[in-house]
Amino acid sequence: MRILFATSHFGFLRNVEPALHLLAERGHHLHLVADRKDKLGGIRIVENLARTYPHITHAWVPTSKRRTWHALGTAFRLSLDYWRYLHPRYDRSPKLKQRARLQAPRTAVTVGSIPVLRTRVGVWALNAVVKTMERTVPYDPVVRQLLEDQRPDVLLITPLLYFGSSQVDYVRAARALGIPSVLSVGSWDHLTTKGLIHDVPDRVIVWNDTQRREAWDIHGVPPAKVTVTGAQAYDRWFSARPSTSRDEFCGAIGLDPTQPILLYLCSSPFITPVEVGFVERWVQSIRSCPDPCLRQAGLLIRPHPQNFEQWANVDLTAHGNVVIFPRGGTNPIDSMARAEYFDSMYHAAAVVGVNTSALIESGIVGRPVHTVLTKEFADTQEGTLHFRHLENVNGGLLRSACDLDEHLGHLVHTLRVPEGSDMRSRGFIEAFIRPQGLDRPAAPIFADAVEDAVRRGVKRSTHGPVWGRLVRGLLYPVALGAKWLAARRRAARGNLEQRSTDSLRILFVMASPEY
User: Fold this and answer.
1) pTM given for the model
2) Phi, psi of 155 (to 5 degrees)
């Protein structure tokens, strides 16, 4: 079987890597394509896969941003992505709403502020009109050519639902060619914090029943099209074993091996743009705790791999038995980085964080997971739907505290509970990560779903109704105008960047000793 796997960048492959290994082991040929490079080491994942399996190949297929219809299609999708946040379910999510608003066209924001259009009927009508126009936009011919050249038996795609994503072109081109398409929902928050699925693939793979409901309620994906597999991204943590003893681990990073370890896992830039101040207060509160067990605990702080710059000059050594490691952040995408990351969780007595998938991974390892609800991060804690899953699904994963004093009480209690007694994490993991059974890895179920999509097949679509071609003809001048405006904006950004570079060059010359 030939599989074409399209992704925005190869960093997303971390979320499906175990399934890719299994598909390759079953003898399937995979061709991996991305339209841009990433800074998370995604290319290393691809290169490791290609070295292990000769029938895995990869290529860059950049999106053609200068083609006639690209700007208009993107504007339509960004508008729809923004309007989804006008739904009452996002009334407590101002930061999510603002992020979508900043990316939407000004016209969409203005229209979305008109009272009559913010009613349920108004929003429905507005979305219906724009969806109709968006679906008449021609897909990228480069994508169709790629599919014709590769002749895959199935199209696998992720993430698809980022803001304004042009990946919808893959779904539409595949349908036109009679190729079944499968969306792998990459992470626990993708369905609730990103854009919309603008064209539903033939099969949608999700982690759990919570996401199945979100796929229907938010994106209109019929439940019959959804397959629940569990989180294949986390299969490895169920069978992982520590690469170091506790004493070796503490010696390597500089913690006192005689004291329990509290692991603080930092969050992404969107969740916690500046996290240092909160962590410093957290450390100070622990060092001021009356309970000696907690007060003397070793504190291991792991910066997020996308948000580590703020830690470059932070010095917490005055508090004693505190380590920031790895200070430059590490994305666990190779065996050494994964072992180091796993050991951090395994040797910890408890784990603390604001809102990050690393809390879920710690729960899989069996560690009690804690958080503090703060006004500072309220918009990205309880102001997001996916954080509420951590609190509520099957009893919830988190021990949430309303302030640092309550949090210290939770930590003292945890340190005095015998290791391995945390059943709260187990209940959440059973429902959210391994809904098909704790002893059933998700990757084989995922691979079965992809193979089943090929067996079921899909009918080749027609060219669409005549009225669609009529609407497209009417939109053509608008597409030309949108293309011209996009070109002007790119030119303006280029001039601004050049002026900024020139200014920096002048300042450098003036600051040099020879000036």
Assistant:
1) 0.91
2) -105, 120
